[in-house]
Amino acid sequence: MMPNILLVDDDAGIRELVSDFLTRHGYAVTAAEDGSAMDRAIALAERPFDLIVLDLMMPGEHGLEIARRLAGPGGPAIIILSAVGEDSDRIIGLELGADDYLPKPCNPRELLARIHAVLRRRREPSADGGVTADFAGWHLDLVRRELTSPDGVLITLSDGEFSLLRVFVERPQQVLNRDQLLDFARGRENETYDRAIDVQISRLRRKLDGATRMHEDLIRTVRNEGYMFTPRVVRR
Fold first, then answer.
1. Strand partners, 82
2. What span, in angstroms and rounded, lies between the C-alpha atoms of 192 and 102?
3. pLDDT by residue (tens digit) across 148-170?
């Protein structure tokens, strides 16, 4: 079944151009002009949307607010597509759980590559075939994409956070630089700037520390080299 894409943008020309292009490349595409139309499309859809391409600056509800309420386990992947190209907006989008960010105007082929990469990350199995990982009392289910704290609390992870944590549990006690983390987590066709890794790691650290109120250094910064996932990991 072809992937189901929802394009949310107030520019009719962009909606038509991107919808036609993605349809020609094998995607089912529904277009909406703002958050209200998006909500109606989601309610009327025969099956859930796999990914939402989301503009930021639209009448009514701002794109970042839409991203905030849609991001989370079981929700669609989100790629922000916006004329607002400041680093702060990119970082905020990632903080809210978006999986990728492209400034306007962008080449439709680049958007296609990003969509392909995000959906592939959601589908691809673990590197060594294991389906769970246990570390320092934590339990990560790689199939259900669920992280459980030592206290039994289910921790919400965005797609980007999950992808990064999976990279760490598959390569524990190894120093990984930003380029390696980007390659392993997002794929070589994704040219996301390396600050995105710092943002995702900061978010992971807050969630790991906040859930247990412990100060164990699970993700250690190795100066001038990168990051290391320090605990022993048991894969099953």
1. 103
2. 9
3. 999 888 998 887 788 889 899 98
